[in-house]
């Protein structure tokens, strides 16, 4: 069975035609005639790709795309708009929201299938390392986790930065990149101090770092991160902002889980599993 496609279309004839066509090519197809039901389905079971109409009876396609881009489990899912809205402004609006492609009706269904295949292929060709920190990305993380002889005795620490986009808007992308390098350096120093330098530190998403540590050292590692990381983050604010007590744009959180039981089939499954875990602020005790 191929990848799962979510088709969001309020016209029943078009919806049935698209669903039947893609099932002929062995895709798993799920359908939604309403925007909210599309959001609910994608959140519960993230598809590999979404074909999305804009004119829907309740929540329009732009809002569906915006909502899917805002949540972790669907942020990277390719979205192809398929719509009657032919205006240049409509196309630009869709692409600015992060859509992979924009196709207007009437359309050639064979061309649509090729665009779907290309989008799925591009989605599978993720960079092996993060371009700023040089740390392993999600593909290498999954390969490493699968290569372990046993998941028993290992803990995943998901270190997450909230407010990174707001920080970048305020202080620029250069400061943002420097901050990411500092988080990498801080986490690496913690692991080295604890004698865990040979263990795995990864950067699968812009705002997320994942550490793989022995289960018996997880709390010790967390304690040291609490002591070192929040103070390190404050140094990236301009001196004047720190002096007047400007509210912090950045906040660090952590989720922890034994590796046993974590789904390792694909990144979407692992990301959804981690997102469902309790999130704790990473503040000094």
Structure characterization notes:
With about 280 residues, the protein is α/β, with parallel strands linked by helices. It folds into 2 domains: about 120 residues, Response regulator (Rossmann fold, 3-Layer(aba) Sandwich); about 140 residues, Alpha-Beta Plaits, CATH 3.30.70. The chain is about 45% helix and about 20% strand. The chain is built from 11 helices and 10 strands. The strands form 2 sheets. The protein has a 5-stranded parallel beta sheet with strand order 2-1-3-4-5, with helices on both faces. α2 runs parallel beside α3 and α8 packs antiparallel against α9. The protein is globular, with a radius of gyration of 21 Å. The model has no long low-confidence stretch (mean pLDDT about 90).
Note the topology.
Elements: E1 4-8, H1 12-24, E2 28-32, H2 35-44, E3 49-52, H3 61-70, E4 79-83, H4 88-96, E5 101-104, H5 109-124, H6 138-147, E6 154-162, H7 164-171, H8 173-193, E7 200-205, E8 208-214, H9 218-234, H10 239-243, E9 251-258, H11 267-275, E10 280-281
Parallel strand pairs: 1-2, 1-3, 3-4, 4-5
Antiparallel strand pairs: 6-8, 6-9, 7-8, 9-10
Helix pairs in contact: 2-3, 7-8, 8-9
């Amino acid at each position: 069975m191929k990848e799962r496609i979510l088709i969001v279309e309020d016209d029943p004839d078009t919806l049935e035609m698209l669903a039947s066509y893609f099932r002929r090519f062995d895709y798993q197809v799920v359908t939604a005639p309403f925007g909210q039901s599309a959001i609910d389905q994608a959140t519960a079971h993230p598809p590999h790709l979404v074909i999305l109409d804009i004119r829907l009876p309740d929540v329009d396609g732009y809002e569906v795309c915006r909502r899917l881009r805002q949540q972790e489990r669907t942020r990277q899912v390719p979205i192809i708009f398929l719509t009657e809205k032919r205006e240049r402004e409509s196309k630009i609006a869709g692409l600015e929201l992060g859509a992979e492609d924009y196709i207007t009706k009437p359309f050639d269904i064979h061309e649509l299938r090729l665009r779907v295949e290309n989008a799925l292929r591009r989605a599978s060709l993720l960079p092996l390392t993060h371009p700023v920190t040089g740390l392993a990305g999600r593909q290498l993380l999954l390969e490493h986790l699968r290569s372990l002889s046993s998941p028993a005795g290992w803990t995943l620490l998901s270190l997450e930065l909230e407010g990174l986009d707001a920080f970048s808007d305020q202080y620029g992308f250069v400061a943002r990149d420097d901050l990411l390098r500092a988080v990498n350096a801080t986490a690496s120093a913690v692991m080295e101090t604890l004698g865990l330098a040979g263990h795995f530190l990864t950067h699968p998403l812009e705002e997320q770092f994942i550490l793989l540590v022995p289960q018996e050292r997880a709390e010790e590692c967390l304690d040291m991160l609490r002591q070192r990381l929040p103070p390190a983050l404050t140094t990236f604010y301009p001196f004047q902002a720190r002096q007047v007590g400007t509210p912090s744009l950045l906040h660090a959180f952590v989720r922890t889980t034994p590796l046993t039981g974590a789904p390792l089939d694909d990144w979407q499954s692992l990301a959804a599993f981690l997102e469902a875990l309790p999130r704790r602020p990473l503040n000094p005790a």
